[in-house]
Each structure stands twice: as structure tokens, then as C-alpha cells.
Amino acid sequence: MAPSMTAPVRPVPGRVKLAQLLALAVPALLLGGAYISEYVFGMHPCEMCWWQRWPHFAAIALALLSFAVPLRKLLTGLAALAILVSGLIGLFHAGVEYKWWEGITGCATIAASEGTSALDAIMNAPMIRCDEAPWDLFGISLAGWNFLISTASALAILVLLVRSARNVAR
Length: 170
Hints:
Elements: H1 3-6, H2 13-39, H3 47-66, H4 72-97, E1 108-110, H5 118-124, E2 127-129, E3 136-137, E4 140-141, H6 142-169
Antiparallel strand pairs: 1-2, 3-4
Main location: membrane
InterPro entries: DiS_bond_form_DsbB/BdbC (IPR003752), DsbB-like_sf (IPR023380), Uncharacterised_DsbB (IPR024199)
GO molecular function: protein-disulfide reductase activity
């Protein structure tokens, strides 16, 4: 028999490493974009926008931890699930913006005003509503883009991890 037929297939560390890098880079870039849109372009987040950010923070922490401890596949998979959760919240938020369904009735945030009294800040700050998209690209809101990017990247990470596990089993 040829050596290639009897030699066991070794795991492909490149797939796991790529999954780890995606699990770290995607939420970091999406959060970076969110903060740039907030602090550079003045698009303050509504409450549902914040809901989408929290799973990305968790994904970054899990992805960073995956580089430091031996449970890298598990932690990377959990990071992918956190990214997926953010994407699904983005789908819900986009549906509210597009009026596909009704959102949380009291969903609004008041943008902070600095340098004034608390009462003046509340009275003069603009109301940020969850059912109005402040910006879109090709008709897709920021929440819609979060859904598309987060869901696709989470699935890609999970596929990389599954393919890595299949190579180990062979």
C-alpha cells in the first residue's frame, strides 16, 4: 500500500486558526464600525443597537481566550454562537426598521448631551428610535448589515471548526 493510504490524516491547524481569527476580527470590526458611526458621524445607537453589541463583546472575549487556553475549538465555537446571536438580534431589529413586525413598544434612547445639567440634557437631546433606520446602503440598514455579516461569518467559523473535527476523525 502507498504510504498516503495508511498514514492517518492529521488535523489542519490552519482551519482552527482561521476560525479563531475570524471570531476575533469580525466582531472587532463590526464594533469598530458601530463606534465610528456613533462618534464620528453622530449616529447614536438605539436600545436594540446596544443589544447587538453585547454578543460581539462576548465573542471578542471568547476569541481572545481561545488563543490562551487549550479549549480553543470550544471557545471559538462559543464565540461563533455569540456572533450568530448578534446577527439574529440584527435581523429582528432590521425587521422592526422595515416595518415587517412590531418591535419593543418603548424602544428608544436619548442621546447624551455633555456640558449641561441632567434635566437640560434630557429635555434637549434627540430621541433615537428603534423603528427608524438612521442610514442604509443599497436599502439595507446597519442592523441588516449586522445580520448579514454576523450570520455569514458565524456560519463560516462553525464550518471551519466542523471540517477541522472531521479531519481529526479520519
